[in-house]
Each structure stands twice: as C-alpha cells, then as structure tokens.
Amino acid sequence: MKCINFNHCLLLKIFTISCLSFSILFLFSVTLGYASTLTSNSDIIESYWSIGKSMSEERNELTAVVYDDWIFAMGGEDIATGGGQKDTVEVYDIANDKWVENKVPPMPLPLDHTASVSFEGKIYVVGGFLEHKVPTDKLFIYDPQTNEWQEGESLPSPRGAMGAEFVNGILYVVGGVNASHIPVNTVLAYDPKTDKWSTKSPMPTARHHLQTVVVDGKIFALGGRILGDGIMPEDLEETLTNFDRNEMYDPQTDSWTTLEPMLSKRSGFAAAVPSDGNIYVFGGQGVGRGKLMDTVEKYDPLLNKWTVEKSIPKARAGLIAVSFNDRIFVLGGQYFGDSGAIPLNLNEIFHIGKH
Fold first, then answer.
1. Strands of 205-319, DSSP E
2. Is the Cβ–Cβ distance between 283 and 333 less than 8 Å?
C-alpha cells in the first residue's frame, strides 16, 4: 500500500508492526500449546501400590472374581490359625473401598485351591481341595440374581490347584493335581449350554499351583510346580520344582505354543490382565520352605517380552489377583512367621501406569 503523506505512512507502519506482532504472538501461542500437549501426552505415570480395605477374614489359597463392580472373595483356608477350609463369601464394593454386609450364602462345600470364573451373570467355582487336601470333582455355579448356588456336571475326575478360564462360552480347566496328588497336563472343557465335559489337547508341561489368564481369546498357562508321584504338598521341601513356563493355548486350533518364559520361577502366585492388555504376575513361592517372593513381572503379549514392575508390598504365596479397569486387587495369601504359616486378609491394589 502506497503512503499518501507522513502521518499516513506512520499509521501504516504502526498497523503493519501490530499485525506482525500479533502473528508472531499467535504462532508462539499455538506452538507452545502444541508442545504442551505433546509433553502432557508423553508424560509417563509410573505404576504404584495403594492399600485397600482388608477382608474381614484371613484367607490363604482363596479364589475371587469380579462381577459388575464387585469382587467376590470365596473359600480358602486358615489352617495355620487353627481353622480349616472355608465356605464363606465376602463381597467388596470397588467404588467405595469397603466390604459390604451381604447375604450371599456360603459355597456348598468348604474349599481351598479352587478356581473361579465369572461368565454371563454367573460365577463358576470348579474343583479344589476338601479337608486333608483331598481334591474334588465338583462344579458349583452361583447366580447373583437368585442368590442361590447350584451344582453343575462334575468334572471327569477330581482336580485341585489348577487354572480355569472362559473363552467363547466354554470353561477350560487346565492342569492341577489329580486324586493321587500327581500333577497333570490335562485340559478339560465344559459347555454350560449342554452341561457336558470334554477333553482337549494336553498342556506341554504337567504342573499345579500355576496361573491362567486370557488375552485375545488365548489362554496363557504360567509358572506352577511339580511334585514327585504320591508326594503330598506338606513334604515339598526336596521335591518342589518351580517353573517359569509360559505356554499359550488357542481354543480355535486346540493347540499349544511355548512362549518367552517368566523372569523368575514361581508357584502359588497370582496373575491378572487389566485394561492395558498385558499380563501381570505377583509374588508366590520360590524353591524351599519359607521362600516367598515379592517381585512383580509384566508380560507384553504383542512383544513376547517380560519386564520388572514395582514389587508387591507384602511378600506372600497363596494369594489371588483380579483386575478392574486399570487396577489389580491382590487379595489374601500367607507368609511365614516365627510361629509358622500365617494367613492374611490383605487387599493391596496395583495401579497401572499410563503413557
């Protein structure tokens, strides 16, 4: 634009400088905002632990499931304190961090070393140990709508200390020990629509006190241990052998694949899959009496890689873990004090770090 006189030229320069300053300020603001957004999104919040409300009862070798926004903690044992197998059920209100007064009837039998899964509005509790570590073949089904337990078709044979998962409407029971306390590699499949059991391709490694989880329709069988024929768990000092095995079962092809092993060999531990789709394992028992672990490992199924996470606050074995969104609730278990094994009512909460 051409100047007409001095005053006009001065005004024109002022206008031009103002526009240029505004443009620079605008670009700076946009750039700063964009950089701030990048920084915010790339900040890594580390995983951490918090302590939730404790259960009202000490429980070792319990089982638990998430149903809606509640946790059902069931069975277990407190033999070390003079008790025995438990049939009681406690219900935890996740949102309010409290164990609520409830009228859930006890399980039909007192059981420990059992496995449970929530599926289509019902809770399935399978196998486990009766008094004197006698495995059972029972399948119990709890319906929260009717507040009643019913019995499903019994397993083909007794099982204890095994894993159990639902995939595509079928309940799979993996490994464990049989009635003779011999570790097995069998995979049993239950169809709730027909109330019938069938046998699937066996797991590569016979073991018990393992953990199973499901990621993308595949069952991962982790860790566990093996005992000599006829050796009872109380005599496991010399015969305990832990595994770091990570074997994946594909129900679609009825086949197994061996994957990257855990960083540590462990049994009697806990495992869960939260909202990030990774597998987390907690604590457990090492080789030798009184050898308890506090380590936590994370497995990325996409990378087939294990990494170390923050240790659990209380080293223990016989614990259970369940996930709810980005939190994992690690319940119960036992540790070894001066007077022997001591069951726990702990509720320790692992919060998953975000990227």
1. 211-215, 218-222, 225-226, 241-242, 246-250, 255-258, 270-272, 279-285, 292-300, 305-309
2. yes
- How many domains is the chain partitioned into structurally? 2
Name the strand (E) or helix (H) holding 193. none
Does 170 map to a domain? yes
Give me the domain span that covers residue 12.
1-37
Distances from the Cα of 317 to the Cα of 77, 138, 188, 313, angstroms: 13, 25, 26, 13
Same domain, 126 and 256: yes
* Token pair for 148: 């009643």
The enclosing domain of 123 has a CATH number of 2.120.10.80
Higher pLDDT, 121 or 18: 121
**Distance (Å, rounded) from C-alpha 148 to C-alpha 146?**
5
Q: How far apart are CA 324 and CA 65, in angstroms?
A: 10
pLDDT at 20: 41
Q: What's the pLDDT at 32? A: 36
- Domain identity same for 190 and 274: yes
> By the 8 A CB rule, do 203 and 174 touch?
yes
What pLDDT score does 11 carry? 38
